[in-house]
Amino acid sequence: MPDQFLRRASYGKNSPEVRERGARTRQRILDEALRLFDEKGYYETLSDDIASRVGIARATLYQYFDGKEAIFRELMEQCAITLTRLVRRLGPLGPTERGFDNLHWWLGEWSWVYDRYATVFAQWTQVARTGGLSVDVRGFVDDQSSRIADRLSDSGVRGIDPTSAANMLAVLVSRVYFYRVGGLLEPLDEEAVIAALAVCVQLLIFPETPSATLAKVEAPARRPPSRKPAAQPPPTHAPRFAALGSRARATAERLIDSACEVFGERGYHLSTIDDVVRNAGLARGTFYKYFKDKTDLLAAVLERGHDELSPILERLDGIVPVGEDLHEQLAEVLRSFVPWHRRYAGALRVGLNRLTTGEPVPAFARMLTVRVTYGFEQVLAAVERDYPFSPQVGAIIMFAVVGRALDGQPRSAKRAPTRTADTLEFVGNIIERSLLNGRRG
Questions:
Q1: Contact in structure between 172 and 198 (CB atoms under 8 Å)
Q2: Upper half-sphere CA count for residue 136 (Cβ side, 13 Å)
């Protein structure tokens, strides 16, 4: 007999039955599911895995939740409610000691929330796209940004649109904590990351903040950039299509171009080979002439991304971080980096969402991120300042700024040039205020 005829209606979180006899079991299901989503990922976790981890029968799990989709949905709701309460508790902001203290406290509380729901933050947008979840992720994000924007407006922010600043702030905080949890900000501890982020965010919204106010946080120990790529040699790869004729190579590259667009629009996990070949205008059989499977295609995308990144990084390494033209030198690099990031963002997310895995493809994606942020870090470390600043955290913020600026932008190379100037102006303003705001005393 089918399962749907055997199951009783699930107990909701406000059900009287749960209050009387199942509250602890229900919470254990949520806690263990959260751990499994972190360990295995949402897509690889089964309802049976959750039941087994809790030590209950699958039928018992279905008394509380309809399945893993309902469990993830409730975790998202818990996270959203907690963050909404946190925004309401954010005190007045401003270029003063009190304003900076309020910001610093808020970022510390946000870090605690992120630690609890890290895997939900990392996966919720992707999971919501499956159509199986009724949570309005976009609506929640917009509501959070609106609340923060109202607080910024009330605080007298100048020189930047409060709504744009609020959108950027939310992304920067989540991204920095994401990297911290994933280990990309080692060897900085939690307090050092929060302090460095507080300085950068304070300067983003109030670039006129006196250095003496920023000095209230403990300065991180001075040290050279900590993630030198030479210590982690990039994976090598032989040219894939060297033995092919020009026409065959063009077809293979067409499939890679299509994958970049499809992965960017739908995400790697929700994309299929059929999506890629349909977008490329080719037959499915053609795909298998050049690639073993979707994973092999992803590897090819990242390999080409690595090759195209090298000359950009050479220009970044060639920046002379002194003098009045530092900003223009960096802008020139970003003019090359923006279209690169737009093209390969969908593939990079595969590695960024699995920072702790040792799988070759995600490791390759992580390596690309490390190479970019290391270059940014070198530039920021050379800026003379009279206040505490972590170039390592600053580099992560710069990477996040570019990524956020491209969110929602068209992935197609045919339309991208019309947006590049506006993107660079926005990115430049953020970087100018928060990251290149050097010595003023």
A1: no
A2: 5
The answer on pLDDT for 6 being more than 50 is no
Predicted confidence at residue 185, as pLDDT, reads 81
Residue with tokens 């989503």: 37
Domain range annotation of the chain: 3-66, 72-231+320-434
For 220, the token pair is 């991180």
How much of the chain, in percent, has pLDDT values that exceed 90? 32
pLDDT digits (tens, 9 = 90+) for 142-160: 788 888 999 999 999 998 9
What tens digit of pLDDT does each residue of 82-128 get? Answer: 988 998 899 999 999 999 999 999 999 999 998 888 888 877 766 76
10 Å CB burial of residue 78 (0-12, 13-18, 19+) is middle
Find tokens 């900000």 and name the residue. 185
| Summary mean pLDDT of the chain | 81
SS (H, E, C) the chain: CCHHHHCCCCCCCCCHHHHHHHHHHHHHHHHHHHHHHHHHCCCCCCHHHHHHHHCCCHHHHHHHCCCHHHHHHHHHHHHHHHHHHHHHCCCCCCCCHHHHHHHHHHHHHHHHHHHHHHHHHHHHHHHHCCCCCCCCHHHHHHHHHHHHHHHHHHCCCCCCCHHHHHHHHHHHHHHHHHHHHHCCCCCCCHHHHHHHHHHHHHHHHCCCCCHHHHCCCCCCCCCCCCCCHHHCCCCCCCCCCCCCCHHHHHHHHHHHHHHHHHHHHHCCCCCCHHHHHHHHCCCHHHHCCCCCCHHHHHHHHHHHHHHHHHHHHHHHHCCCCCCCCHHHHHHHHHHHHHHHHHHHHHHHHHHHCCCCCCCHHHHHHHHHHHHHHHHHHHHHHCCCCCCCCCHHHHHHHHHHHHHHHHCCCCCCCCCCHHHHHHHHHHHHHHHHHHCCCCCCC
Is pLDDT larger for residue 187 or for residue 410?
187
CATH topology of domain 3-66: Arc Repressor Mutant, subunit A (1.10.10)
Task: Say what the pLDDT of residue 203 is.
Answer: 94
CB 346 within 8 A of CB 263: yes
Q: Which of 156, 162, 199 is nearest to 397 (CA)?
A: 199
Confidence grade of residue 409 (pLDDT, cut at 50, 70, 90): very low
